[in-house]
Design a protein that fits this description.
By secondary structure, this protein is of the alpha+beta class. A three-stranded antiparallel beta sheet has the order 1-3-2, with no helix packed on it. A hairpin with a 3-residue loop joins β2 and β3.
Amino acid sequence: MEIIAADNGPGIEDIEKALEDGFSTGGGLGIGLGGVRRLMDEFEIQSKVGEGTKVRVVKWKRI
């Protein structure tokens, strides 16, 4: 399964910091991006400040 999520929001200034557990810009738990990265088999993120963010994740079917 492949999921691509994209937005035209403010972008992520520091992607490595945003992937750390506990980091939140919206007052949440700060486990979203890092948790997704741990759960999925492939994880890619691209972001430009002022332009938006694109996240692509893949989970392979286990046989």
